[in-house]
Amino acid sequence: MPRIPSIRLPHDAKAGPTKPEVRAVTLSKLGLTPADHFVEVGSCTGAVTIEAARRAGRVTALERKPERLEVTRKNLAANDVGDADVELVAAEAPEGLPDDADALFLGGSRNFEAVLDHAVETDVDRVVMNVSRLEVAGRAVEAFRDRGILDEVAQFQASHGYELAGATSFDSDNPVYLVAGGAGDDEGSGDEDAEASGVSDA
Amino acid sequence: MPRIPSIRLPHDAKAGPTKPEVRAVTLSKLGLTPADHFVEVGSCTGAVTIEAARRAGRVTALERKPERLEVTRKNLAANDVGDADVELVAAEAPEGLPDDADALFLGGSRNFEAVLDHAVETDVDRVVMNVSRLEVAGRAVEAFRDRGILDEVAQFQASHGYELAGATSFDSDNPVYLVAGGAGDDEGSGDEDAEASGVSDA
Amino acid sequence: MPRIPSIRLPHDAKAGPTKPEVRAVTLSKLGLTPADHFVEVGSCTGAVTIEAARRAGRVTALERKPERLEVTRKNLAANDVGDADVELVAAEAPEGLPDDADALFLGGSRNFEAVLDHAVETDVDRVVMNVSRLEVAGRAVEAFRDRGILDEVAQFQASHGYELAGATSFDSDNPVYLVAGGAGDDEGSGDEDAEASGVSDA
Amino acid sequence: MPRIPSIRLPHDAKAGPTKPEVRAVTLSKLGLTPADHFVEVGSCTGAVTIEAARRAGRVTALERKPERLEVTRKNLAANDVGDADVELVAAEAPEGLPDDADALFLGGSRNFEAVLDHAVETDVDRVVMNVSRLEVAGRAVEAFRDRGILDEVAQFQASHGYELAGATSFDSDNPVYLVAGGAGDDEGSGDEDAEASGVSDA
């Protein structure tokens, strides 16, 4: 069974892209709109960069490894992202982080506490972090909580069907933790802001 | 922990909305663009309708229960979906299905074989069905396979953190099966179409 | 991280043994005691055979492939199962099924309806079937239900940690369906029988 | 669907028993034999105590809350555990821990670092800890690793079927982390010891 496609990633970074389903959930939590400046730490394959470039008005993607940034650049070029305003920055965050991000995604855990500190200082509205390792997930939740920006912790797991002797057997992706929050939550956002960023269906 | 919001659903249908994470994955599989006519069978709370209305050029939502269609209508009105072209139809599919859908979502299993027959006849490009019950999921996969439109089967599970004695315990949503495919797969779509609907990152 | 051991399986059958965690749950559902005659359909690697031989008074293991039965025999010999009364039978069930089983395990789905018919006819007290494929799981549940012997359906998934850069990443086993029931349920078993086979902690 | 039973737990402790499937996996990791002295920290409902009493030669169950210890006692009395040698101790571990345990189970995380220290000092062969909270699971793995006794980390999830409109819907238990290891691993155990405690099928 060929899986239903979303974006083209002809170029490969060693770490592998965020899986499509995790990416979909991550992007739904980020709730990007054309009014947003989206900042990504660790763009790697560029899968999130591409999808964000289709939603946010402005994208800044940081990547500390030049060869990975090159992969981001090539994969971005292989997809139609319209006339998106995307800046690729060779830097190890928190170095190089802009001060006007509306939404921030941490694809990895490197320096995450310093990145979160910067997010708090610059009042980033929505922050989402994906973590695959247990101890790091625990520390990430604590770091969000300690900074007063924790809104949500979730674990996701997808299993993919393949045909085996005429029926469907499954291959499971590993579980991924998603930690989400935002420095701007208690900033007295009025009804309009709430509507712009979406309001809970809980 | 308040969960990160996405859409407003002030009005309630008994069956409960598709969970936000399942909705995010479902919508990513549907890959809606402004060029698409999206058709939904069983709009219920309207959660998928609202998100589809923000992406597709045209939305037709069928719902056999009038009181549920009213909930769809009210929730749709409570969200900003721009000037989306949305038609709500009180009908039990396959009755009332338009013949020019590009993407079709089955939120429930009622009459699903007849709905799939119609999707094949009218050459619907992308079809996604969500199923929660085991036997029905098995029959759905068989129905997609029998019609030659099966592309993907996935199972998805999300667990949500809540604070318990200062740390994060989880509450699990039930697993959901997602069956996806499309009648238009082997229709010789050129490169441009492939790009428009996205091409695999597998 | 070396996983905590349970039994020796030096000899390999192509299909791979039931995973240790699924085996543990399966055996707990079977609730074997020295009073039981346990019958297994598809002994394969022999993993379940060995653990059953340590619990049940008598074990009959059927395997239609002679080379797999040889693997069962060798792995059985490599483990201490005391003076267990184990009979290995080269037969394709329902051929070769004894008429006095107390507990029956179906490790695969081959001929499962005929095997279940035999279980009903011979009044087998506990029947457990493991299934990995979706459509087959659905049909198995229906087969148990149609025969009036369905007690329980469960899905299990285990993820195993491995060290990655100093922390724990996970590798997931595929989900497994477990269907359980028994022909003897409504046979008016008294309190003593109930106690022998265990009584619910639900 | 009534679930297949295992033990009787007529008396209730507030925290709820370890779920049957998690208990089955936990006991399989502990690999108890009549030669073992099994020690449990936090016996609570007594579900693990009862099953351990059927396998180990000797059981010592610690519980810091007297009313819970009373529940353990009553539930133990409601099950046939033969002439098992079970001692119930009202103590908050590490207080009251015996020095000759072969296998140790931590059902909760209270004082777990001190309990693990005692396990290392007294050379406990097998140690299993169940954790449900994320941050605690991360710290538990680190505590096992720091003491050089980490063998295995697993995450386990069970979903239970119930009948909904003639087919099977699922209700998911929350995921549980299982951390396992043992101080006696590198103690030069000969082949016989290895066989007694079981040797890997990995």
The averaged pLDDT of chain A comes out at: 88
Structural class given helices, strands, pairing of chain A?
Answer: alpha/beta
Q: Tell me the fraction of residues in β-strands of chain A, as a range.
A: 25-35%
Distance between the termini of chain A: 35 Å
Global shape of chain A: globular
Oligomer: homotetramer
Total of helices of chain A: 6
What's this, in brief?
Four copies of one chain form a homotetramer. Chain A has 202 residues and is an alpha/beta fold.
Please name the defining characteristics of this protein.
disordered C terminus, homotetramer, alpha/beta, 202 residues
Characterise the protein shown here.
4 copies of one chain form a homotetramer. Chain A is of the alpha/beta class and 202 residues long. Chain A is built from 6 helices and 8 strands. Chain A has helices spanning 20-30, 47-53, 66-77, 112-121, 134-146, 191-197, and strands spanning 37-41, 58-63, 85-90, 103-106, 126-131, 150-164, 167-172, 176-181. In chain A, strands 3-2-1-4-5-8-6-7 form an 8-stranded mixed sheet, sandwiched between helices. Chains in contact: A-B, A-C, A-D, B-C, B-D, C-D. The B-C interface holds B 134-139, 141-142, 153, 155, 175, 177 and C 134-139, 141-142, 153, 155, 175, 177.
